Amino acid sequence: MFAKPFLLQPRTVKETGNRKTVLDEPYTLFPDRDALLLKDFPVRVKVGDPLYKQNSGIVLSPVNGIASLEHSEEGSKIRIVQDGNFVGSKPWVFRTLQKDEVLETMDRLGLVSLDFPEHSLSSYFRSKTKTKLILLSPFTKTQDVDFLPELKKNSDCHSSFLEVLKAMFPEAKIKDYIFGMKPPIKTYSYPWGIPEYFANQTEKLSFSRIGDVLYIGPETLYNLYRALFADFPFIEREISLYFLGKNGGLRKSESTLRIRNGQSLKFLFEDLGSQYSSFTVNSFYEKHPVRDVQKGFYWDIRQHYSLIFLTRYDSQRKEFPCVECGECSLNCPTKANPMALVSSFGNFQAGLCMECGICTFLCPSSISLRDQIRNWKEANHGF
């Protein structure tokens, strides 16, 4: 039914030199405007101490140190000057899990559904009490980091969690594409990691029915198992580094980087700033601003999962009229026909569109079809 998924395959690049990881400035967190503060600032904090609560859950201190609260017209921020020991991750220790402790651990250690990052993991689980289907997917959204090797090294931990899932959701069928079932494709290609697409391709569910499913991707499981079997809070994230050269060639670092929540990227910018003047986050399929490395940046582990360095960037690049090349509709994995939004070519099939961003990425006229799609959906609410 659907087209073959679009595959962007970067080359890998070996590491050069030793990457500095010691911070020169405080960790900085930016609570939502309606966030509930859980401390009286300034205050001394330890790793894992709850700092504030917002829609995506409780945010914890990433380090030991002194936390202070600052206000400005842009909003509030919490700055933590680190002192004492740097607490690292621990090895996983298998144990039999109890049903009641799983949700408590999710709350206590600040876990988030990284497949639906607007939800805390406990609230996501609680919203699925009547689900009839649980999908354990082998793919993250863009598969920048492969978490399967680490999960498969700890198969006993996975088995223990499966028993808890059965107890928590006795009426649900569990389809485990990590251990129990053969993955639907041998080699990952985008957009297989988007929950709606994965559920459609494996279970023939329409995109609108993803809310009926408890969907858990490998990165969410990885951080959940660190919490359940190593008592480690969600305060850091494993990310990939990409490098876009002058000739348009995309390279990917062979090794990943572990970044703490609120960590400044100054150490990276000092190391790579002479080669790359700009950067953006996550992927080319999403709409994120391109930033100057000279202006600094603080990492948000709930929202950011990869870092892309750019040799150059044309900030004055403009949209041009559609040339009706058909690349957007030809490469649309669901045949939603996005070209119809900027031409007279057929009708846009909104019900098939999952806003994966492939059409915008491929458009030679630099048309933001993603914006066109969202505007259409807002204007035709309930389509």
From TrEMBL:
One GO term of the cellular component aspect? membrane
The answer, when asked if Cytoplasm is one of the entry's keywords, is no
SUPFAM superfamilies per the record?
alpha-helical ferredoxin (SSF46548)
Which InterPro entries would you find in this protein's record?
4Fe4S_Fe-S-bd, 4Fe4S_Fe_S_CS, Ion_transpt_RnfC/RsxC
The 4Fe-4S ferredoxin-type domain is annotated at 309-342, 344-372
- Gene Ontology molecular functions: 4 iron, 4 sulfur cluster binding; electron transfer activity; metal ion binding
Gene3D superfamilies, A to Z: 3.30.70.20
Source organism superkingdom:
Bacteria
Q: Which UniProt keywords apply?
A: Iron, Iron-sulfur, Metal-binding
- The protein depicted here goes by the name Oxidoreductase
| Species, as recorded | Leptospira semungkisensis
The upper taxonomy is: Bacteria, Pseudomonadati, Spirochaetota, Spirochaetia, Leptospirales
